[in-house]
Each structure stands twice: as structure tokens, then as C-alpha cells.
Amino acid sequence: MTDLLNVKNLRIAFPSRQGPVEVVRGVSFAMGRERLGIVGESGSGKSQTGRAILGLTPPPGKATADRLEFDGTDLRQATKAQWRDIRGERISMVMQDPKFSLNPVMTIGRQLTETYRTHRKATKAEAQERGLEMLNAVQIRDPERVMNAYPHELSGGMGQRAMIAMMLVTEPELLIADEPTSALDVTVQIEVLRILDRLVSERGMGLIFISHDLRLVSSFCDRVLVMYAGQVVEEVKATELTRAKHPYTKGLFNCLPKIEGGERPLPTLQRDEAWAL
Amino acid sequence: MSLTTNDPGGRSSAPSRFLWKVTKLLATLAMTFFGLLLVTFLIGRIVPVDPVLAVVGDRASQSVYDKAFIELGLDKPLYEQFWIYLQKVMTGDFGQSFLTKKDISEDILRVFPATVELATVGILIGTILGIPIGILAAVKQGKLADQMVRVLGLIGYSAPIFWLGLLALLVFYAKLGWVAGPGRIDIAYEYSVTQKTGLLLIDSAMQGQWDAFRNVFSHIILPASLLGYFSMAYISRMTRSFMLNELAQEYITTARVKGVPEWRIIWVHALRNAAVPLVTVVALSYAGLLEGSVLTETVFAWPGLGQYLTNSLQNADMNAVLGGTLVIGVIFVGLNLLSDVLYTLLDPRVRRRG
């Protein structure tokens, strides 16, 4: 079986006055239609890795790789036409905060049907119907109202469901979820995750789940990449995360509060300069 | 008034809240105009010109002078003079111009359409060119096209308009003969077009006088292009910065992820958001042109409001100055209101708030 996505030695650099700064330093992984978690703290390069896969490294940043292949297509050489067939159609991304990632002056309906009509020849009515179906699928109770609503009229949870609907309406093969629940209330997080979980399994798509929440990732994914300072420091099966070898991963686990008889004060992570080398 | 207006908070019913808003708006407008009149009136009385001399001339005898002084009401205290003036304005009486011996309202109705016509063609040129150029500069940020737009804008913004005007007249009228010279219309056509709206382009077109229309057009195109260039410089600069701001937002990345084509991202997603603050910029530029660009009107012998006001001011024709200033005030306030309304239409986040 060929890999759905194959990344080898991905490097992302941003120019600065002191010369280029590499925020991602040689990330490699391959995945099929599975759930891959990427964990790491802010600035570890996990989000930039996700964006680079879609060719959306924000300028003046530059992404280079020895290999960046999606289903046999070399993404490094992809033409505009190839990107059009990939973005939104075969690879989608759920962004972090619906407050900023939805266009404030367009109704949810217009943004939702826009994805569909960009990639399928469909009349307005067909797209509208597909949109309503999709809103139903993300368990929005009154899809008609939400279709005509503007983003600021929705709660965070509703907005993020609409975002998921918008990204899955074309049934992509790979979904990148970049901290999809970090901006939401804890109570809403679980609901949104459950919806995401169900849709991903039903449609059998690959998922890259980017998060800083180790426990969330381990319960949600098959395999986990742990990133630190732009590098993958550990790759483990989610079930074996407790047996992680790298001191950073171990350290993170030790910091999680335990219900029965935890230590006070909670242990903090003792960093080692060597990890960042 | 409904019973609930004494509760302006928010729990009251929708119609009464609307009424409250309208009342508040009217009160604000009244205050604005009162302040405007007061300030203009005071300045008019403080400036070291003698309105009596403007009426009787500097060779009049003392007794004639004193008579006029009393007729003008200048012997009364300042607050009383202002009160009398205010009462007259309320009834629509702005007094007479010493200079033209006509009612101020009549004068303004005569000169204002000339300015409206010039300003409107000018702002159309400025907006139609300025917005796409600003977008181009934002999309090509830092590239050659961006630099060119910025230089073009800088020149438009800093070159004195009377100099540009004279230069343009020299090149396009005197040397090349592409356009007509100063004035609104050639004498040959002046009495063949019946003035209904006072806007000669519209009047001549409605009467099917295409020769006259062409003549009017060749007169207006040069000063309007200059004003257009001037406002284009400002509008394109603002468009550029608004667009750069929008293009850096997260929802633009979302649109890219969705595979939305680049032209749609720029012209639909980003511009639709940038349009919200742009409305105010365009409206205020338009207001600026409507108040009469004195320099342009002088260079092009354009019989508009700017020229009328300057002329009146130089001749101590205070009634005319006060009337003209009030017109300008109304324009500014009106266009501000209009842009507020458009703002609410364009931005759904403002729409449903109080």
C-alpha cells in the first residue's frame, strides 16, 4: 500500500535580521488513512507543519523538503491547477478559532456552499441542499437558521461545527485539524471532538490532529508525533504513550495532575538544552 | 412619544427604541448646526473687515455709514445679533448678499450645482481608479507595481493642485487642444441648455443636446480628472492598507484551504471586508470635494461654491459666508450619516447592535 502522505526532512525557515530562523527542522513521517496526532508546545512547529502540507506557509517563510508527496503527487512541484484540485477537495484543514477563521461578512451558508461549488459543478440549490445535509451531520439542530446566520451570531461550538461542515462537504481524503478545540469551552470540546471523530471514521479519511493536549491526542489518535523545537523527538503508538522514551514526553506526562493522591505542588517540566539540538 | 421612552436602556419595545434613536440623532444634529452657526457667526464678527463698508462703499459720508450700521443691526449686542440671525435662519431666510444683491439661498442654488457636478465626476474617477490601484498595490506588496502606485499617490498627495491645474491646462488645452479651456460651457451653448437640475451634463443629456453635452464634458474632464487624481491618491493609499490588513486575517487562510481561486479571495473575501472602512474614506473625500475646491475652481474659472465663498469672504459679505458654511456643514453631516448607514448595511456585526 502506498502512503497517503509522505513527508521527508521538512524544513520551514523564516528570514530574520540574524539570518533565517528554522521553525521546523527536518520533520519526516508517513501516514495512511489513519489518525496521526502531532503534539507539542506553542512554537514547536506543529501548526507550520500542517500548513506546509497545504502549501500555505505564510510569506516570507519558505518550506523545503526532500519529499512531500500526497497520494503520489509531489506537492513541492504542484502547479496552481494541481493545488486547486487538492486544497479543499482532497486535503482540508479545520482551523483553530472560528471567531477569526470564518469570514465575518459572509453568511455561513455562503461560505459553506462556496467550498462545494468551487469543486463541484452544482447549482445553487444543490449546494444549498448539500450544505444543509452537512450541517445536520455536524449535529446542528436548526440548519436553516445557521445557513443564514453570520459567524458572530453563532457560539464558538456552533462556529466550529460549521467550520467542520465547511471542510468536509467535499469529502476530502485527508483532514488536518489544527487545534480544533483549543478555542472552545471544555464542555463543548468533547462534543465537537465526538462529531469530528464520527465523521472521520464514517468517511474513512486520514486525519492529522494537531494539539498541545497530550491526553486528548492519546485518546483520539492511533499514533502520536511529539514535536519539540521544530523536530520530532518521539513517535509512539497512542496506546504506548505511557511507555514513551524521550525525557520531554515523559516530563510532560509527569506534569499531568493525577486524581488519586497527586503530589503538591505539581511537578514542572525540567528542560534540557540538549533536546533542542 | 410612547410611554416607554423614559427607559432608553434596552428593555423597551423596538418601535420606541427606534423613536429614541431618531430623537437622539435629531438632537445631535441640532447641536452640531447650532455650534457651527455660532462659531461662523463669531468669526464673521471678529474678522477685521467692516461689513458696513462693504455695503456703502468707502466714500460714503458718516451719516450714510451710521444709517447702514443701524440697519444692519450692528449697534445691538452680539448675542442679540446672533439671536436675530438664528431666528431668520429657522425660517429659511439667510439674508441677502451685499455683493450680488440676491437672496443667499438663490445664490447658493446657482453656484452649488457646478460644484456638485465637478465633485461627483471627480470622486467617480478617484474611486473607480483608486480602489483597483490600491488593491493591486496590496496584492503586489513590495514589488514594482506597489512602489509605482505609492509614488503616484505621493505625487498626487503632495503636488499643489493649482500648479498641476495650470500645467494640465497648458498641456492638454493650450498645446494639444484635447480639451476645452476654463469655464463650465462655451458661450455658444450657454443659453441653449435650459437649466433644470443645474448639472449641465444631465440637463444637456436629458434635452438630447449632444453637442452641448460634448462641450460640457470637454470642459469638466480636466478639472474633474485633477480632483479625481487628488482623491485617488488618498483612496488608493487607504485601500492598500485596508486590504493588507484583511489579507493577513485567518479567514483568508481558510478560503485558501478551501481552494477558493485567488481572484475570489481578493475581490470577494478581502475586499468585501475592506469595503466597510473604505465607505467612510470615500464619503469624506467626496465631502471634501463638495465643499468646493477653491484652488481648482479658481484655476479653471469654475463658478462653484468654493469660488463664491472665497469671493464673499474677501468682500466681507458675511451673510453669504454664513449661508455657504451652513451648506457645507449640512453636506458633511449628511455624508457622515450616509456612510454610517452604509456601514451598517455592509457589516453584519454592527447591524443588530443597539
Write the layout of secondary structure elements.
The complex is a heterodimer of chains A (277) and B (354).
Chain A: E1 5-14, E2 21-31, E3 35-39, H1 46-53, E4 62-64, E5 67-70, E6 73-74, H2 80-86, E7 91-94, H3 98-101, H4 108-119, H5 124-137, H6 143-147, H7 156-168, E8 174-178, H8 186-203, E9 206-211, H9 214-220, E10 223-228, E11 231-237, H10 247-255
Parallel strand pairs in A: 3-9, 3-10, 7-8, 8-9
Antiparallel strand pairs in A: 1-2, 1-4, 1-5, 5-6, 10-11
Helix pairs in contact in A: 4-5, 4-7, 5-7, 7-8
Chain B: H1 14-46, H2 51-56, H3 62-71, H4 78-90, H5 104-139, H6 144-158, H7 161-175, H8 187-190, H9 200-206, H10 210-247, H11 250-257, H12 262-290, H13 294-299, H14 305-314, H15 318-346, H16 348-351
Helix pairs in contact in B: 1-15, 5-6, 5-10, 5-12, 5-15, 6-10, 7-10, 9-10, 10-12, 11-12, 12-15, 14-15
State the end-to-end CA separation of chain A.
34 Å
Q: Give the SSE string of chain A.
A: EEEHEEEHEHHHHHEHEHEEH
Mean pLDDT of chain A: 87
Q: At the first level of CATH, what is the class of the largest domain in chain B? A: Mainly Alpha
CATH fold description of the largest domain in chain B: MetI-like fold
- Count every helix of chain A, treating DSSP H or I runs of 4 or more residues as helices: 10
Shape of chain A: globular
**Fraction of helical residues of chain A:** 25-40%
Distance between the termini of chain B: 19 Å
Greatest interface: A-B, 33 and 21 residues
Oligomer type: heterodimer
Q: Roughly how many Å is the radius of gyration of chain B?
A: 25 Å
Query: How many β-strand stretches of chain B?
Result: 0
Named at the architecture level, the CATH assignment of the largest domain in chain B is Orthogonal Bundle
Which consecutive residue ranges of chain A, at least 5 long each, have pLDDT under 50?
A: none
Mean pLDDT of chain B: 86
- Shape descriptor of chain B reads globular
List the total number of helices of chain B: 16
CATH evolutionary superfamily of the domain at 1-90 and 206-277 in chain A: P-loop containing nucleotide triphosphate hydrolases
Provide the β-strand percentage band of chain A: 15-25%
The H/E string of chain B reads: HHHHHHHHHHHHHHHH
